[in-house]
Amino acid sequence: MSKRCTTAHTVLDIDRPSRSNLTPPTMRNRQKAEIHLRSLLNESEKSLPALVRRAGDNLGSEQLSVEQISKLLKTQEFLIRRLARIFYPSTENVQHVKTVTIPQAQKLTCILNSTMEVRALVFFLILDEAGDEYVTRAGMTEFYEKYFKGLKTLDGDRIQEVVQGLLQKFHLDQRDRIDFEEFYSIVSKDLILLECLSQFTVHPTWFMNFPSSQPAKQSKFQEIFSNHCCKRENKEQKKNKLSIADMKNNLSRIIMLIIYLLINLGLVIYVICYRTIKVKSNVPIVFARICGMLLNFNCTFIIVLMLKQTILIIRSNKFLRKCIPVDDHIDFHKVVGRIIVVLSILHAIAHVVNVGAYNSHSWVAYLFTTEPNIGWVGGFASLSGLLLCIILSVIVVCSMRWIRRGGHFQVFYWSHLLYLPFYILLIIHATNFWKWIVGPLFIFLLEKFYSIVTRCSSRNGRTYIHSVTIEQSNVISLNIHRPKHFNFQSGDYVSINIPRVALYEFHPFTISSAPEEKDYIRVHIQATGDWTKQVYQRFKEMAEEEARKNQIKIYRADIHPQESLANFQNVEHDQIGDQSNVKSNKREPIFIKGPYSSCARYVFDCKHVVLIGGGIGVTPYASILSSLMAQFRASSIACKHCNCTNYLPTDLSGKRRLQKVDFVWVNRDYKNFEWFLNLLRQFEQEQENYLALNPNEKRFLDLHLYFTEIKHDENIGNAPLELVTKTWKEVAGQDIFTRLQCKTHFGRPQWENLFHSFLSMENTSTVNDVSVFFCGPSSMGETIKNRCRTFRFRYYEEKF
């Protein structure tokens, strides 16, 4: 028998009689742990804890495969094989370990919930793959290389760098191997290692989740009924949660809704009185006229809701935006659009009924000819009504979420331009509609004229692309020369047109640079739709000669991640070329419409803000954080004699209302947004410099990063990761993934606990003025909105 097998039998020989628990005080730590481990392995099933026995009774099979255990514990198979080797000490190759019996699974549960000495020994045996009673430098390196390759979170060079920090912790940077006594001595004296080892455990009922039988499949009717009941239950819960505080926070919305309903109700009463008392119309005509009058108002109001420059003025005034719920204009636009569809259908049905019951003309003559002579323009009312229904149907279908979010934004964009023939036909169709539309239409056309003039002017909107960064995960960053009179605020967005990609298409994107950057504006684009993919491919595949001809710099951060930081830092220092080049065809031209405002403008009017971004939803907050960093830098002064830098506290705290920022970022993989991590690193360093020179000042920015690719489970699967992340933090002073000083959390946030932390002792001065700004998936937004209602935080959501 090999040395490895002999050693393993020596350690874990289950046939050896167990000794008394009263061990001599001079006994070595390994001997103590081995005795305890053998006693657990030799325990009969009847002596196991009742909870563990009942959990095993629920299993339908007599054994579990390594793959099944791996799924149940959400960890990697190779780790389970090494762990299960304590039951098969004579197995030379861990790959031969295929199954674990139910009694063994029950005993394993007891072992991993045993004393710290036993768990330390089990972890030691996992690292000791060779079975020679030592953890070697090569063995620990091999273990973590396999572990990180399974997680797919770090590349090869980074893994080697991180493992070196762990080897240093266990003194394996100076020695080739350590035995268990040295291993346990290091662990027992280090609070961080003890905390990590405490997570090297499993829940007593972990194998109760094993699918012993397939659940009965629900019928289609049962699924629909179940979903309907769930929705009704959620609605009832929301109704019960409605409180006086909610009504106060939504007072402007409630007032606006009441005014809207009263206007519609007033119009209905007016038409009924006029048509029944004065004109003596029949019932279908009265019904048609009611719908027609409501359509006059709603078709006018829906334009008012999309007057972007007017909305910008309202948002810029604190009093007006408190009185008018301007942040809901897109949602209100959608609601009014649905009301228009319903009213149009009812209006058409009423006229059809009237033709069949009271009119001498046939339906064909009434609908498809001008013979009935209805309308104020050549009897064109019937035909124009039919055309209006067709146009409205096209607009509604092309506005569906699955088209807008499915990468076909241009379909939505071009179909919405049918509003031009729609309103022309509506003026022809309805006798008095022009009286309703003349005012809002004049303002709308005035805004359109202003938009055309500004985007064609080299001082406002006609400019060129200076540099492009191809980021990782299909993201591209455009650094655009900022026109002389182009002014914006943090969180604003623009619509851009790149003629060499598509001549007439404009697409909206949030500005990710700070207003303080006078020479450039920056936008980040994720290649998800047809147009965005064309932009991404154009610059990714652009040859060096073509880039030189177009006087554009292209950085390949997808190949060389450091180029993202280089571009981010150097773009501010690049010299601006001759302005005559803006008009030259050699440049890469781009047209900008905007800026247009969003709720993010309110950030600097709050005391304590919580910025929550999901995925690419971090873009609006890049501008805000860049602006705050620029303010930090603007408040710094350099001594002429010693070149030391200091900060003026009055410039930071005296000129603004904002006192605290908590930034929460939920993302699947940190690699997707290396450009944003660069910004966070710079801000973090700027803040640390400021706090070092002003120790009495409070921390202004706190970062909370959550990466959902790795699940948050305190069990044996995450224990090795916790060990290496906390060790690396201690050795290098930064997070293992982001290189930030703040910790990266795994899984989704526990919103309840996180929101409680915003009300902690250090935030008592801002406890009554917390505003949450969210940009990301709507499902996440609903969860956060409900939490804000519970904690009475103000909630703002940016639609994207």
From TrEMBL:
GO cellular-component term (any): NADPH oxidase complex
InterPro entries assigned: Cyt_b245_heavy_chain, EF-hand-dom_pair, FAD-bd_8, FAD-bd_FR_type, Fe3_Rdtase_TM_dom, Fe_red_NAD-bd_6, FNR_nucleotide-bd, RBOH/FRE
Superkingdom per UniProt: Eukaryota
An example Gene Ontology biological process: defense response
Keywords for the protein's UniProt record, in alphabetical order: FAD, Flavoprotein, Membrane, NADP, Oxidoreductase, Transmembrane, Transmembrane helix
Location of this chain's protein in the cell: Membrane
Chief location category: membrane
Keyword field contains Transmembrane: yes
Listed GO MF terms: superoxide-generating NAD(P)H oxidase activity
UniProt source species: Rotaria magnacalcarata
Protein name: FAD-binding FR-type domain-containing protein
Catalytic activity field: NADPH + 2 O2 = 2 superoxide + NADP(+) + H(+)
FAD-binding FR-type domain sequence ranges: 458-602
Membrane topology, record value: Multi-pass membrane protein
Residue ranges of the TM segments: 254-277, 283-314, 335-354, 374-399, 411-430
